[in-house]
Amino acid sequence: MGKGKGALEYWVAVVKPGRVMFEIAGVPEETAREALRLAMHKLPLKCKIVSRADLEGGSGSEE
Length: 63
Description:
Elements lengths: L28 H12 L11 H6 L6
């Protein structure tokens, strides 16, 4: 008999295109945009910053 499956090597999360990953409230828009811009450089996928108005209007703005 075996002794189990072993230790995990890494985690995976499936993120489909169009999915909102982060929402920020309670800070000025420029502060939120700067924080998200810095976070975008650390993620291994293409991202864009959109506002609630962009989502309701149907068009996205890239940064």
